[in-house]
Amino acid sequence: MTSSTDTALAQWALDREIVLSRVISAPRDVVFSAWADAEHLPNWFGPAGFEIETKEIDIRVGGLWRFDMIAPDGQRYPSRIQFRRIEPPTLIEFDHGADSTDDPGRFRTTITFDEQSDGKTVITLRQLHPTKAQRDAGIGFGAVEYGYQTLEKLARYVESLRA
What we know:
Blueprint: H1 4-9, E1 17-24, H2 28-36, H3 41-44, E2 51-57, E3 64-70, E4 76-87, E5 91-98, E6 107-115, E7 121-128, H4 132-141, H5 143-162
Antiparallel strand pairs: 1-7, 2-3, 3-4, 4-5, 5-6, 6-7
């Protein structure tokens, strides 16, 4: 059965999109591995000050990562990511939302990893929300700021792996 969220996420629309990008001082395969390896992903994911408590993690097409994001004030955000596409080392696509089977607020994220000739990687995250109103609410909630905090944590984590 196809939900209205599934239908909305099947067609990309710029007015429902949030785009974040960052250059990371590490080779693409290292940055990709930080996203695609269950040993790495929970160690850096989430905004500044948030912790991750993994319930299950299976990073493969169709696999789930169920986890709680725990805010600095102790508030828990039960979350679920379902992996849709994984094309090493250039692309990961997943749906992200609350930890429920059919969360109407879940959004699709496509991450691309572009290698630069100087050994750095340009990572670009494109979030597609089911409606413009949900996208706007996400921006109002802090999705852009939290997304850049998450990319900062990724950059620091990858740099620590290389040290």
